[in-house]
Design brief:
By secondary structure, the protein is mainly alpha-helical. It has one domain: Winged helix-like DNA-binding domain superfamily/Winged helix DNA-binding domain (Arc Repressor Mutant, subunit A, Orthogonal Bundle). The chain has seven helices and three strands. It has a three-stranded antiparallel beta sheet with strand order 1-3-2. Strand 2 and strand 3 form a beta hairpin.
Protein backbone atom coordinates (compact mmCIF):
# COMPACT_ATOMS: atom_id res chain seq x y z
CA UNK A 1 0.00 0.00 0.00
CA UNK A 2 1.38 3.38 -0.96
CA UNK A 3 1.94 5.80 1.86
CA UNK A 4 -0.06 9.04 1.89
CA UNK A 5 2.01 12.20 1.85
CA UNK A 6 1.27 14.11 5.03
CA UNK A 7 3.74 16.95 4.60
CA UNK A 8 2.40 20.39 3.76
CA UNK A 9 3.22 22.58 0.82
CA UNK A 10 5.48 24.72 3.01
CA UNK A 11 7.84 21.77 3.24
CA UNK A 12 8.66 22.00 -0.44
CA UNK A 13 11.09 24.81 0.44
CA UNK A 14 12.91 22.48 2.82
CA UNK A 15 12.82 19.61 0.33
CA UNK A 16 14.13 21.77 -2.51
CA UNK A 17 17.44 22.50 -0.81
CA UNK A 18 20.28 23.99 -2.80
CA UNK A 19 23.18 21.77 -3.83
CA UNK A 20 25.46 22.96 -1.03
CA UNK A 21 23.11 21.44 1.54
CA UNK A 22 22.45 18.22 -0.38
CA UNK A 23 26.03 17.40 -1.35
CA UNK A 24 28.11 15.22 0.99
CA UNK A 25 30.61 16.93 3.28
CA UNK A 26 34.09 15.59 4.01
CA UNK A 27 32.49 13.12 6.45
CA UNK A 28 30.29 11.69 3.69
CA UNK A 29 27.02 13.04 5.09
CA UNK A 30 25.11 16.09 3.92
CA UNK A 31 24.62 19.29 5.87
CA UNK A 32 20.91 18.43 5.98
CA UNK A 33 21.73 15.07 7.58
CA UNK A 34 23.99 16.78 10.12
CA UNK A 35 21.21 19.25 10.97
CA UNK A 36 18.66 16.45 11.26
CA UNK A 37 21.01 14.54 13.59
CA UNK A 38 21.36 17.67 15.74
CA UNK A 39 17.57 17.85 16.07
CA UNK A 40 17.33 14.12 16.79
CA UNK A 41 19.89 14.45 19.58
CA UNK A 42 17.98 17.37 21.07
CA UNK A 43 14.77 15.31 20.99
CA UNK A 44 16.53 12.28 22.47
CA UNK A 45 15.56 12.75 26.13
CA UNK A 46 12.10 12.70 27.75
CA UNK A 47 12.78 15.90 29.74
CA UNK A 48 13.62 17.78 26.55
CA UNK A 49 10.49 16.45 24.89
CA UNK A 50 8.49 17.63 27.91
CA UNK A 51 10.01 21.11 27.65
CA UNK A 52 9.30 21.33 23.92
CA UNK A 53 5.71 20.15 24.33
CA UNK A 54 5.21 22.56 27.22
CA UNK A 55 6.59 25.51 25.25
CA UNK A 56 4.62 24.57 22.14
CA UNK A 57 1.39 25.21 24.09
CA UNK A 58 2.31 28.68 25.38
CA UNK A 59 4.11 31.79 24.23
CA UNK A 60 6.99 31.53 26.74
CA UNK A 61 7.82 30.50 30.29
CA UNK A 62 10.48 31.08 32.91
CA UNK A 63 13.06 28.51 33.98
CA UNK A 64 11.57 28.61 37.49
CA UNK A 65 8.22 27.48 36.09
CA UNK A 66 9.87 24.47 34.49
CA UNK A 67 11.83 23.58 37.61
CA UNK A 68 8.57 23.52 39.61
CA UNK A 69 6.99 21.16 37.07
CA UNK A 70 9.87 18.72 36.74
CA UNK A 71 11.23 16.59 39.60
CA UNK A 72 14.86 17.12 38.60
CA UNK A 73 17.69 19.29 39.89
CA UNK A 74 17.88 22.82 38.53
CA UNK A 75 21.38 22.09 37.22
CA UNK A 76 20.05 19.08 35.30
CA UNK A 77 17.23 21.16 33.83
CA UNK A 78 19.78 23.80 32.88
CA UNK A 79 21.79 21.19 30.93
CA UNK A 80 18.67 20.05 29.06
CA UNK A 81 17.79 23.65 28.21
CA UNK A 82 21.36 24.15 27.01
CA UNK A 83 21.01 21.20 24.59
CA UNK A 84 17.74 22.58 23.23
CA UNK A 85 19.33 26.01 22.79
CA UNK A 86 22.34 24.43 21.07
CA UNK A 87 19.95 22.85 18.55
CA UNK A 88 18.28 26.28 18.23
CA UNK A 89 14.88 24.79 19.08
CA UNK A 90 14.40 27.22 21.97
CA UNK A 91 15.54 30.75 22.77
CA UNK A 92 16.41 32.14 26.16
CA UNK A 93 16.13 35.79 27.15
CA UNK A 94 17.61 37.01 30.40
CA UNK A 95 15.16 39.08 32.41
CA UNK A 96 17.12 39.46 35.63
CA UNK A 97 16.88 37.47 37.83
CA UNK A 98 15.00 35.03 35.57
CA UNK A 99 15.48 33.53 32.13
CA UNK A 100 12.48 33.46 29.82
CA UNK A 101 12.37 30.57 27.34
CA UNK A 102 10.38 30.45 24.13
CA UNK A 103 10.11 27.93 21.33
CA UNK A 104 12.05 29.01 18.26
CA UNK A 105 9.09 28.44 15.95
CA UNK A 106 11.12 28.87 12.76
CA UNK A 107 13.62 26.15 13.73
CA UNK A 108 10.81 24.00 15.19
CA UNK A 109 9.06 24.11 11.79
CA UNK A 110 12.33 23.34 9.98
CA UNK A 111 12.90 20.30 12.20
CA UNK A 112 9.32 19.13 11.71
CA UNK A 113 9.67 19.44 7.94
CA UNK A 114 12.94 17.51 7.91
CA UNK A 115 11.51 14.66 9.98
CA UNK A 116 8.36 14.63 7.86
CA UNK A 117 10.49 14.32 4.74
CA UNK A 118 12.57 11.56 6.30
CA UNK A 119 9.60 9.48 7.36
CA UNK A 120 7.49 10.03 4.25
CA UNK A 121 10.29 8.93 1.94
CA UNK A 122 11.20 5.62 3.59
CA UNK A 123 9.31 3.45 1.09
CA UNK A 124 10.58 5.33 -1.94
CA UNK A 125 14.18 5.07 -0.76
CA UNK A 126 13.82 1.44 0.37
CA UNK A 127 14.84 2.21 3.94
CA UNK A 128 12.41 -0.34 5.38
CA UNK A 129 13.92 -3.83 5.69
CA UNK A 130 12.15 -6.47 3.65
CA UNK A 131 10.19 -9.04 5.59
Amino acid sequence: MEREKTCTASESNTLNMDKAVAEPTSTGVTLRQEELAMYAKALGHPVRLFVLEFLSRRACCYSGDLSQLLPIAKSTLSQHLKELKKAKLIQGTIETPKIKYCLNRERWEAARNMFCHLFSCDQKNNLNPKK
